[in-house]
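[stage:ingest] chain + small molecule (adenosine-5'-triphosphate)
[stage:ingest] validated
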Amino acid sequence: MSLKALRTHFTGEINPEADNGQTVTLSGWVHEVRDLGGITFLVLRDRFGRAQVTLVKKKVEADLLETVKRVSRESVVTVTGTVKAEAKAPNGYELIPESITVISDAESPLPMDTTGKVDAELDTRLDNRFMDLRREEQTAVFVIRDTVQKAIRDFLTENKFMETTTSKIVAAATEGGTDLFPISYFDREAFLNQSPQLFKQMLMSAGLDRVYEIGPIFRAEEHDTRKHLNEATSIDIEMSFADHEDVMELLENMIVYIYEQVVEKCQPSLAVLEKELQIPKLPFNKYTYEQVLEIINNEIPEIEDKMQFGDDIGTQAEHLFGEYVFNKTGESHYFIVDWPTETKPFYAMPYEDRPEISKSFDMMHRMMELSSGAQRIHQHDLLVQRIMEKGLNPSGFDFYLKTFKFGMPPHGGFGVGAERLIMTMLELDNIREAVLFPRDRKRLSP
Ligand code: ATP
Ligand code: MN
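[stage:predict] done
[stage:export] tokens:
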């Protein structure tokens, strides 16, 4: 027997007027039972919302009422009944039950509250993520994340990008950093990839022309912050016959498209989170790295140490500059362009006439960095030189460098952190809120 008999509709699919008087079957979790003496309500919850099942003591069969009074919160139940339009009920209807079956009992006490009445610590919530995700605010975040990822796929497909999947087990570090997780690979040491960068570039030589990947990146960063994970999701693109300007134009258009899609498709989830999204305006403002330095040094007195060319823009400066831009322009998204070549990875393309700066950018949100990108070096010898200047050994990059010797088009690309995108869009306090099962310094389970 198919389990289709267990459900004819989701809660959100029932139309109070059109379906009034219809018999339907809903399945879901017992959100709560309210016994008011003469009348008892069972609130059934599924991914799309809630339905109120109404049992009037004088009218309903005694065993139905008995089942409802005995069932524990968060048990899974199936209810068949008649739809009755009721303006005061969630979604505008109630269900007058003919049968109620308990499919799976929930033990009590529950590991955490799901009604939102008791505030649980983030750690408790993540320890019990399956239960935490039953709360409508948490469901809403991932409904929106789903829409964001679909929007990205649609946008990039429309722009002739091909979705790719590259290996996460690698022999060498992408950027020669120390932030790598070593793993044992038979009798050798291997690493979890920190970025698909080198693969994406190799695919430019392969002639795939425009590729993207939405996949995990692994960073063994020790720090415990609100915006870093040890396993994050990167939205990575690479495109041929493009420079950093072309890549930035694609990126800002993609961000606007994502926001538009979320506004169009996710109103119920946005309402649950009490968020109204402001769609960023095109084109995003651009500040050169040197302009940022000048503004920080002259117009932001909170930063006491003067910054010098070549310094990274630290968390505090990043934050204060984001506020400065927002106060000036009313916009949350902007670019910082033309970074010192030394602050960027070896594959960033230096300007011909000023090699100390590179055709690179960070795309910023008021709160933090969302993306880094650049035009890449496509000339083999220059690339080898840059690898050596970074103190790395080119022989470790043979598999990559080879692809620059047999026809490599000019190209550029970027990586956007999916969790940071969601976090900034929904103004979440902690990046872990945007991941189903986050991995951080302390957390390896669930
Ligand atoms: P940051 O300086 O903020 O740590 P990064 O410059 O090291 O980031 P990139 O290597 O430029 O990061 O990666 C591209 C994007 O991937 C970042 O802009 C960010 O959105 C995301 N990202 C990188 N590392 C992490 C991480 N540890 N946790 C979450 N997102 C990350
Ligand atoms: Mn970066």
